[in-house]
Write a structure and sequence with these properties.
By secondary structure, this protein is an alpha/beta fold. It folds into 3 domains: about 260 residues, 2-enoyl-CoA Hydratase, Chain A, domain 1, CATH 3.90.226.10; about 180 residues, Rossmann fold; about 180 residues, N-(1-d-carboxylethyl)-l-norvaline Dehydrogenase, domain 2. It has 26 helices and 17 strands. An 8-stranded mixed β-sheet has the order 12-11-10-13-14-15-16-17, with helices on both faces. It has a 6-stranded mixed β-sheet with strand order 1-2-3-4-6-9, sandwiched between helices. A 3-stranded mixed β-sheet has the order 5-7-8. Helix 12 links the parallel strand 10 and strand 11. Helix 5 packs parallel to helix 8, helix 9 runs antiparallel to helix 10 and helix 18 runs antiparallel to helix 24. Bound molecules: (2S,3S)-3-hydroxy-2-methylbutanoyl-COA.
Length: about 675
């Protein structure tokens, strides 16, 4: 049973109990429908309280059912029956009421929520629009522009915001069920309002407000079908009878559900939740970590320390001297202050964080740490020295982690007294924001070590992806491969701004050359110079980056790189770079042919896919879905395209770049 019925006086209590998030799967829909019929037939029932068991109200339709044949009753049918119930239903909301879960609450005559509840219609994040009446009922409860804001952006609102716009009828302080029972007894003495479906739509809250929201939605979601469809559905439901609007909504929903973009978004949603499904290990629970050590207070170390502090962990940050420790502490304090300023934490939480944070230049301060992460200079010698000191001062059961982005973790582990407790935790900058965490597994790492790392990932609400030890693990290795392919394209006829334009038109947040200018060209230049002696002289090697650095063009920080930055931040195509690139083509006797944007993206995609297959063959990634999760979360590969591996196997439509099938030959020299 997933739906339970109880009675208290003349109030029926309907409880949905379908862990973990009370998704409205087939069993729930069927039992809810049966329960509604029983209540309608029961003359002793005057009102109904609908509540969910566990930590949250319903999170909506069951995402795992979308690719199965529809099973009656459809959610819309169940909700329309509740709309027309002769006894008023009161939705009592805790946690989140999302998607079909909120639509279920909208079908109820009243809604009350806990103070920390969140309510939303996030269907556009799955490439859909609400499919059970959300676009029809919501603008009959709140102003049309507010309804469009919620549906078009897919972002939940909190209980107070919901009450302010009229989405809920009250906030339940204290026990939710008791508050709902009190609310029920209160409504029975007054005339009932009509169900939302029978009300008139509420006009926009100010002239032009609806169009303003629609304009923002279009600007924020270029290339995406669902947000545009949401605007159209809302606009329609304001001007046609609800029955027609429901039919139009259902038709649009069915169409979107079959679309490549929705299948891609649902793929990423589930893939992000499956990265560690079969890796669940005993030996560590999320509350098994209390004190963290962070070695290094630079950008990465400060970001990691801030992420841990914001997750409620205490942190000891070690730097080489008091001045560096103070600078690191200042970086952390700036991040935490910004979090409070943006309303992400309260002043009280900020004060607690301050008390949980210690900086020192003495490793002895790490004596009680449960897990220590080093984020020092990317040099094997420096890292071995750090681990030697950690060996000497940390508890024997403490986990030692490196944030290295490419050094050999097996070599680092082997330099310690107990390699079983060493692991890689590769954060992406800014570490307190980026959700991806590559958990890099040295050969000797014990299960307990991995369990602790997974526990930290869960505590930090990161998306953990397991990676084997290799140069660049998964993310940076694939990025190096397609960066190299883009440099080939420069020699063969493309220009940086054309490649970057093709990438952003595809949906990437930034082109590869603008990204390199942002990171600084000198870092990889120094690495290439270090590796020059061992480089395979017969392999293709692009010298454009070297020429740029030799000319003092080190990227945005020097005002010039692949681009010119006249104002210090806006990239402008630079004729000098064009001339330099053409000289390189001429020196290599390469005839320049300007490629199309589609050809550029096809080469980039096929390079990502070819490197992804190598990574799978070498066992560096556990499956192709993990690679998609990495590319979406590390480099902003557009979620609505699913990831390079998804595109290769499951997308065959004209509106996307047709990925090549045979990737480029091995290009080891490119990974520098
Ligand atoms: N269906 C099935 N499983 C779901 C689910 C869903 N809607 N939402 C979450 N899960 C599973 C998830 O896979 C994981 O499983 C577990 O619950 C915990 O999730 C008709 C058609 C609710 C805010 O888009 O936003 O309704 O790994 O790790 O971080 O118009 O899950 O434990 O086996 O994310 O605490 C609209 C999606 C659907 C909400 C909880 N609803 N879910 O976050 O836990 S379309 C959504 C979330 C729809 C209607 C349309 C989050 C959460 P496992 P989690 P969390």
């Amino acid at each position: 049973m997933t739906v339970h019925l109880a009675r208290r006086g003349n109030v029926a209590i309907v409880t949905i109990d379908n862990p973990p998030v009370n998704a409205l799967g087939h069993a729930v829909r069927r039992e809810l429908s049966d329960t509604l019929a029983r209540i309608e037939a029961d003359v002793d029932v005057a009102a109904v309280v609908l509540i969910c068991a566990g930590r949250t109200f319903s999170a909506g339709a069951d995402v795992r059912e979308f690719d199965k044949p529809p099973a009656a009753p459809a959610l819309g049918a169940v909700l329309r029956a509740i709309d027309h119930a002769t006894k008023p239903w009161i939705a009592a909301i805790q946690g989140t009421a999302l998607g079909g879960g909120l639509e279920l609450a909208l079908a109820c005559r009243f809604r009350i929520a806990c103070p920390n509840a969140r309510l939303g219609l996030p269907e556009v994040t799955l490439g859909l629009i609400p499919g059970a009446g959300g676009t029809v009922l919501l603008p009959r409860l709140i102003p049309a522009d507010k309804a469009l804001e919620i549906i078009g952006f897919g972002k939940p609102v909190n209980a107070r915001e919901a009450q302010a716009v009229g989405l809920i009828d009250g906030i339940a302080e204290g026990d939710l069920l008791e508050a709902a029972m009190d609310f029920a007894s209160g409504i029975l003495v007054n005339p009932l309002p009509p169900p939302a479906i029978a009300r008139q739509v509420i006009p926009e809250s100010a002239p032009g407000a609806f169009v303003a929201v629609a304009t923002r939605i279009a600007a924020k979601t270029p290339g995406q079908h669902a947000p545009a469809a949401a605007v159209q559905a809302l606009r329609g439901s304001l001007s046609i009878p609800p029955i027609e609007a429901l039919a139009a909504e259902a038709q649009t929903f069915r169409h979107l559900k079959q679309s490549d973009q929705s299948r891609a978004l649902r793929h990423v949603f589930l893939a992000e939740r499956n990265t560690t499904r079969s890796v669940r290990l005993d030996g560590a629970a999320p509350n098994d970590l209390a004190m963290m050590g962070v070695i290094g207070g630079g950008t990465m170390g400060a970001g990691i320390a801030a992420a841990c502090l914001l997750a409620g962990l205490s942190v000891v940050m070690i730097e080489r001297d008091t001045a560096a420790a103070a600078a690191g502490a200042a970086r952390v304090s700036e991040i935490i202050a910004s979090s409070e300023k943006r309303g992400l934490i309260s002043a009280k939480k900020h004060a607690l964080i301050k008390r949980a944070f210690l900086t020192s230049d003495d490793y002895a301060a790490l004596a009680r740490a449960d897990l220590v992460i080093e984020a020092v200079f990317e040099d094997m010698g420096v890292k071995k020295q750090v681990f030697a000191q950690l060996d000497a001062v940390t508890r024997p059961d403490a986990i030692l982690a490196s944030n290295t982005s490419y050094l050999d973790l097996n070599e680092i582990a082997a330099s310690t007294r107990n390699p079983a407790r060493v692991i890689g935790l590769h954060f992406f900058s800014p570490a307190h924001v980026m959700r991806l965490l590559e958990i890099v597994m040295p050969d000797a790492a014990a299960d307990r070590t991995l369990a602790k790392a997974l526990s930290l990932a869960e505590r930090l609400r990161k998306v953990p992806v397991l990676a084997g030890v290799c140069d660049g693990f998964i993310a940076n290795r694939i990025m190096s491969a397609y960066r190299c392919e883009c440099e080939y394209m420069l020699e063969e006829g493309a220009l940086p701004w054309q490649v970057d334009r093709a990438m952003t038109a595809f949906g990437m947040p930034m082109g590869i050359f603008q990204m390199q200018d942002l990171a600084g060209l000198d870092i990889s230049w120094a690495m290439r110079k270090r590796q020059a002696a061992t480089r395979d002289q017969d392999a293709r090697y692009v010298e454009i980056g070297d020429r740029l650095c030799e000319a003092g063009r080190l990227g945005r920080k020097s005002g010039r790189g692949y681009y010119w930055y006249p104002d210090g931040k806006t990239p402008v195509p630079d004729p000098e770079v064009e001339a330099l690139i053409k000289q390189e083509s001429e020196r290599k006797r390469l005839r320049r042919i300007v490629p199309s944007d589609a050809a550029i993206m096809e080469r980039i995609l096929s390079t990502m896919q070819a490197e992804g297959h190598r990574i799978l063959r070498e066992g560096i990634a556990r499956n192709a879905d993990d690679i998609d999760v990495v590319m979406v979360n590390a480099f902003g590969f557009p979620r609505w395209r699913g990831g390079p591996m998804f595109m290769e196997t499951r997308v065959r439509t004209t509106d996307t770049v047709q990925p090549g099938t045979d990737g480029p030959p091995d290009q080891d020299q490119c990974r520098t």
